[in-house]
Amino acid sequence: MTALRHLLSVRDLDREAAVGILDLAEDMADVATRAVPKLPTLRGRTVANLFFEDSTRTRLSFEAAAKRLGADVITVSAKGSSVSKGESLKDTAQTIAAMGIDAVVLRHGASGAARVLADSGWIDAAVVNAGDGTHEHPTQGLLDSYTMRKAVHGEGSRGTDLRGLRVTIVGDILHSRVARSNVWLLQTLGASVHLVGPETLLPQGIDSWPVTSGTDFDAALDEKPDVVMMLRVQSERMLAAYFPNEREYARQWGLDDVRLARLAPDTMVMHPGPMNRGLEISSAAADSARSLVLDQVTNGVSIRMAVLYLMLAGSEQSA
Amino acid sequence: MTLLIQGATLPDGSRTDLLIDGGVVAELGSGLSRAGATVIDADGLQALPGLVDLHTHLREPGFEQSETVLSGSRAAAAGGFTAVHAMANTSPVSDTAGVVEQVASLGDQHGYVTVRPIGAVSMGLAGERLSEIGAMAQSRAAVRVFSDDGKCVADALLMRRALEYVKTFGGVIAQHAQEPRLTEGAQLNEGALSSELGLAGWPAVAEEAIIARDVLLAQHVGARLHVCHVSTAGSVEVVRWAKARGILVTAEVTPHHLLLDEQLAAGYDARFKVNPPLRRAEDVLALRAALADGVIDIVATDHAPHPIEAKECAWQEAAFGMVGLESALSVVQAAVVDTGQLTWSDVARVLSSTPAEIGRLSGYDAPFRVGAPAHLTLIDPSVRRPFSIEQLRGKSVNSPYLGRELPGRVVATVHAGVPTVLDGELRPVEEVAARVAD
Q: Between the CA of residue A95 and those of A76, A104, A128, A317, what are the distances in Å?
């Protein structure tokens, strides 16, 4: 398994690297079943969670991952810190770097922020992109692939990819970093992807992506996809005229009870959270036996343990 | 002072000596001599008329940490320019006679270039009420170009009135064509790349729709329109159509839109963030062809200095703009001269005589004739070198060309008979100011 310098985009991962991360996450998941669920391989290392945008679940997931590996964790989040007072990415990163850190987990509202931090030379620490604007969320893509692979291959997952799997992703593709990370990673792992949403929320140039796309959710369901992944709808999109109102959105692109009933028994239902119940997904769908929403959360910790391990375990400790 | 330039190649390809005395071209011919003259050996050098930039941000007053009239004048001279038109988005905005007179007189004092202020179209660039256009036109700065550059005059009625009003004194409105609602939060040319990078798209139609509206308005009121920094193949077609109908429209392209395309943004390096954004490779080729066939009239730099911190950040937090005065001629040579699309005579047209004509700046219509004001630059087109930070002579270093190999080198620049650059080096501030005062 080759070490990772940074994790900025799933596009930096080839099939071998991606499968390697998923396999290592299997080992990490085994750790979680022990009486003491810790693997103190990163003892003495410090991971800084630098969250310019609020995201409780991603932050907690990275914190849990780092702690299970024995690392110390510093968390700087937007509210009530210098980050909310307009301090720049450069100054904030250099300030925490001066305290001696080995990795920065960066959540930022600007697309490319993690790439800029990694390329800048401002700090030496490894950089994990924990979501950058509307660009990517690589660990979300990895945990989604892990979850799909586990559902298909179970105990025999190690070494496998997602060849032949058909995944339909529904909703605000234009603004979704989750969709982007899934599109590229699923392609790398051999799955085929169909994107569905209103024309206003499908990005320009989508025909050059390695996917098919359309606007008709029901037609997409007729194709009996293996996975239906629903994306969160932000209410501010409605105000910007991307769609008329929530009722119309839910009717056209929501996974409601009628559509849920049409799914094959083994169709996986996924959502990166947090969910808008009753809008893009009904409660019955979210809570159904097909729903892997909570598996996604659990698997997120394993994936993040694997990523932090690959970046830090072989590297020199910071002074 | 007296200058004797020996063996220069003129834009038409002929070779001559030039004797410059009293601020004008005093004599042309071979084997000229004059006792006491400063001799410049121009053997192998290309002479061009002094370059005229119709689109420069000098940042003074208000943003002197980025550029001043002096530092921008020096950057211009280093790039072969002898006149610049200073955009109005200063602080206070150049929307009154007082501000434009101040900017013009600073330029006169320093003497590196003629500084021609551009007046704001609307008060405070707010796009609501006309600024004191007449007062600026009648001031000592004699403003002829008006622009809200950085912002589009989006209100169709205000644009119509401005076009009509400046006819009174032969002025022109230079429009920054950017439909504001279509570009809210826009970061990068809208297309496959912006979608991949997750950067809000800046559709070509936001530029083309305003140009289409404005050429029709110009036709309706019989006024002159200038379109700033045309950046798309579609805009070229709109301008071509308008010219074919006899509409009085002129258009400019920046050096960077002639050389760079959107793919440079793929690494989120904010040095490549500019307004209008870098476009597709096919747009770059269409702009070159349009400059060659005359649909686009001129090259203008849109020199836009910014402090380092404005570019050392995430893409969407960074300022728009690039410095361009020092690199303009080299970029034009790389993009359209070395590719065989423009001759040096064409370069003289698109970077000197036509921009002067659009700005109603006298003294540039017949260069290299006895009696003409001595504004000229001498370049060595045979040089190729990596563009380096030492070549940036203004206050800011936000150049997209650092580290890129570019052809050509400005060896000497002469403004109104006063050398501002000799042997590739700027002359000292005191020397230039003293000689201009003579």
A: 11, 12, 18, 18
Residues B242-281 pLDDT 10s: 999 999 999 999 999 999 999 999 999 999 999 999 999 9
* CA separation for the pair B53, B298 (Å, rounded): 9
Task: Label residue A86 by pLDDT band (50, 70, 90).
Answer: low
The answer for residues whose C-beta is within 8 angstroms of residue A117's C-beta and 6 or more apart is A89, A93, A104, A106, A123, A127
CB distance A182 to A9 below 8 Å: no
Looking at the domain B2-46+372-437, which fold is it? Answer: Urease, subunit C; domain 1 (2.30.40)
B195, B202, B269, B279: best to mutate for the A interface, most A CBs within 10 A: B195
What Rg, from alpha-carbon coordinates, does chain B have?
Answer: 21
Q: How far is B203 from chain A (nearest CA, A)?
A: 10
Where do the structural domains in chain B lie, given as residue ranges? 2-46+372-437, 50-358
pTM exceeding the 0.80 threshold for the entire prediction? yes
Q: Which amino acid is at B393?
A: R
d(CA A290, CA A309): 31
Q: Which two tokens stand for residue B157?
A: 């009625």
Phi and psi at A250, nearest 5°, equal: -60, -40
Hey, is A171 helix, strand or coil? Answer: coil
pLDDT digits (tens, 9 = 90+) for B130-152: 999 999 999 999 999 999 999 99
Least Cα distance to A305 among A16, A23, A12, A17 occurs for A23
Q: What's the Cα-to-Cα distance from B262 to each of B29, B196, B257, B273, B403, rounded to whole Å?
A: 47, 12, 10, 9, 18
- Total residues found in chain B within this entry: 438
Domain extent, residue A246, equals 138-297
Task: Name every residue whose Cβ is closer than 8 Å to that of residue B64 and which is 6 or more positions away in sequence.
Answer: none
Tokens of B302: 């849109």
Going by pLDDT thresholds of 50, 70 and 90, the confidence category of residue A127 is very high
At A240 the pLDDT is: 82
CATH number of B50-358: 3.20.20.140
Given an 8 Å threshold on Cβ–Cβ distance, is B317 in contact with A206? no
Distance of CA B256 to the CA centre of its chain: 11
CATH at residue A65: 3.40.50.1370
A203 found inside a domain? yes
Give yes or no for A204 touching B (CB within 8 A): yes
Return the C-alpha torsion angle B57, B59, B60, B64, nearest 10: -150
Q: Is B173 helix (H, G, I), strand (E, B) or coil?
A: strand
Is the CB of residue B92 less than 8 Å from the CB of residue B99? yes
Query: Inter-chain contact A205–B192, Cβ cutoff 8 Å?
Result: yes
pLDDT band at A319 (very low <50, low <70, confident <90, very high): very low
| SS3 call for B208 | helix
- Spatial distance between the Cα atoms of A91 and B312, rounded to a whole number of angstroms: 11
Q: Do B198 and A136 touch (CB under 8 A)?
A: yes
Q: Residue B370 forms beta bridges with which residues? A: none
Please give the tally of structural domains in chain A: 2
Number of H helices, E strands in chain B: 13, 19
Is B43 in contact with B15 (CB distance < 8 Å)?
Answer: no
The whole-angstrom distance between A203's CA and the closest CA on chain B is: 6
B179-203: average pLDDT? 97
State the complex-level ipTM. Answer: 0.93
